[in-house]
Write the structure tokens for this entry.
Amino acid sequence: ALQGLQHKVTFTPQQPQTPVTQPVKSTLTINLDDYSSTNEATLAIRGITTAGARLVFFANADEKVASADASGAFSTNLKLEDGNNEISVTSFDAKGPPTTVKRNITLEISQ
């Protein structure tokens, strides 16, 4: 009694969902407290970031480029000017946007 009745079934496979991930900023920590002072004209900067990252260091009168080692450790020295110095450390790695840390360091030269 159901002769000539047809059903059409359409199957559309779903595409696998690819999660959208935001680039992750690298971590960057340094050994300097903001608004600290020193009487040393050469400032030693040490810290930790992503392993192998490239780093750019700026002070009022100096700039350096360095790389973090396989554990992410880095160190360099920057020359300071008498008075306030804005120190900027930026870490660049292949996994995400750069990360910058800024500190204000005052060089107090005794007379």
